[in-house]
């Protein structure tokens, strides 16, 4: 560690700050989506589907960028908290997200998008952590094509 600059101590602060920003990004997506989900193209809840896809892409990219499952999980948690808090009725009985087809597409589709993104990040994490085959690995370029069997001439 460089004592004069303290570079070693800035890594946890930077990582924590990125997670806070990812949480806020998910929460902002949830708040915007909660008010705009009902836009439709004919009978198709196009805005609800678009917000679900945006959440999926956000979580996948966050998991990829942070190289961790928690990178995908943090914006999903922000979205879940914002969306489900805004879907609860208030004291006077009004709700932001109604029990309509677009509302159900938004809530169920967004939750499914978050689960898919976290599972995909978890799957890529498992594949990356898989140990290599046992035994010595040859170094250098490997010949291509069929190899002759039997004793080799000197």
Defining key terms:
154 residues
Structural account:
The protein has 154 residues and is an all-alpha fold. The protein has one domain (15-125). 64% of the residues lie in helices and 0% in strands. Helix 1 packs antiparallel against helix 2 (46-66) and helix 1 (7-36) runs parallel beside helix 3. The mean pLDDT is 79.
Give a concise summary:
With 154 residues, the chain is mostly helical. It has helices at residues 7-36, 46-66, 69-86, 101-129.
Count of distinct structural domains: 1
- Measured as a percent range, the helix fraction is 55-70%
Can you count the helices?
4
How far apart lie the N and C ends?
54 Å
**Mean model confidence by pLDDT:** 79
Q: What does the radius of gyration come to?
A: 24 Å
Helix/strand order, N-terminal first: HHHH
β-strand percent reads: under 5%
- Which structural class do the helices and strands define? mainly alpha
Major sheet: size, sense and barrel closure? none
Number of strands: 0
Please mark out the parts with pLDDT under 50 across 5 or more consecutive residues, or reply none.
Answer: none
Shape: elongated
List the helices and strands and how they pair.
Blueprint: H1 7-36, H2 46-66, H3 69-86, H4 101-129
Helix pairs in contact: 1-2, 1-3, 2-3, 2-4, 3-4
């Amino acid at each position: 560690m460089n004592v004069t600059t303290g570079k070693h101590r800035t890594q946890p602060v930077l990582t924590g700050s990125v997670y806070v920003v990812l949480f806020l990004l998910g929460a902002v997506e949830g708040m915007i989506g909660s008010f705009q989900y009902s836009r439709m193209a004919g009978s198709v809840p196009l805005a609800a589907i678009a917000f679900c896809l945006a959440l999926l892409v956000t979580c996948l990219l966050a998991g990829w960028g942070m190289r961790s499952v928690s990178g995908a999980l943090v914006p999903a948690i922000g979205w879940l908290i914002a969306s489900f808090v805004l879907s609860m009725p208030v004291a006077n009985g009004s709700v932001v997200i109604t029990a309509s087809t677009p509302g159900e597409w938004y809530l169920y589709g967004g939750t499914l998008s978050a689960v898919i993104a976290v599972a995909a990040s978890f799957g890529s994490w498992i594949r990356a952590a898989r140990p290599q085959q046992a035994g010595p690995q040859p170094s250098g370029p490997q010949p291509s094509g069929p190899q002759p069997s039997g004793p080799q001439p000197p």
